[in-house]
Amino acid sequence: MKIPMLCRRSLAVFAVAAAFIGATLVPSGADVGKGDTSADGIALSNSYAGNTWRQQMLKTWDAAANEAVSKHIVAKTKVVNSNNSAPEQASQIQNLILEGWKAIVIDAASTSALNGVIAQACNAKIVVVTYDSLATAPCAYKVAYDYVAMGRQEVDFVAKRLGGKGNLLEIRGIAERPSTTTFIPGLPAKRQSIRD
């Protein structure tokens, strides 16, 4: 069965977070993922859940989380959504720190507004992984995608389907998000492949 790209990304991010938890529980120099994480939990701090892309991401996260719990890889998971508000997301992350989560995965509402709370999490020995819309806090692990290449690949696919002729409607993501601002540069040069 072929797993859609978004699903593969969410599963990969979950696996990365679980591996880093394991790495924090074993002596220095040991292999990543060797520690017992079965009593630990991973939380997802999601900035926005208001479109189908994000709904699919949350469903994929939930599937990966349920499987990890059923296989005793982790004991629990949690998802919080901040309605695209960086202050609300920072407050939610502070609560996750107080609740004692071992790892927090973040799809950030801002590249910089969460850096202070992320530093607090890192100082509390919590593994922090940012992905999709990355925060710039140096202590957080970052899982990034090549959005420029992705934009080019999508336009190539559409151009091939349209036989090189037709109109292309470009629907952009949330303004000023890294995923949007880096995806868009992949489009202009490739738009030329779909011209009447």
Major beta sheet, strand line-up: 2-1-3-4-5
- Overall tally of structural domains: 2
Number of helices: 7
Helix content: 40-55%
Q: What is the distance, rounded to the nearest whole angstrom, between the alpha carbons of the first and last residues?
A: 37 Å
Uncertain ranges: 1-7, 20-33
Supply the helix-strand structural class.
alpha/beta
For the largest beta-sheet, the strand count, sense and barrel status come to: 5 strands, parallel
CATH architecture of the largest domain: 3-Layer(aba) Sandwich
CATH homologous superfamily grouping of the largest domain: Response regulator
Radius of gyration (CA) equals 18 Å
- Average residue-wise pLDDT: 77
The CATH top-level class label of the largest domain: Alpha Beta
**Beta-strand share of residues:** 5-15%
Here the CATH topology of the largest domain equals: Rossmann fold
Order of helices and strands: HEHEHEHEEHHH
Can you describe this structure?
This protein is α/β, with parallel strands linked by helices and 196 residues long. The chain has two domains: 139 residues, Response regulator (Rossmann fold); 45 residues, no CATH class. Helix content is 44%, strand content 13%. It contains seven helices and five strands. The protein has a five-stranded parallel beta sheet with strand order 2-1-3-4-5, with helices on both faces. Strand 3, helix 4 and strand 4 form a beta-alpha-beta unit. Helix 3 packs parallel to helix 4. It is globular and about 55 Å long.
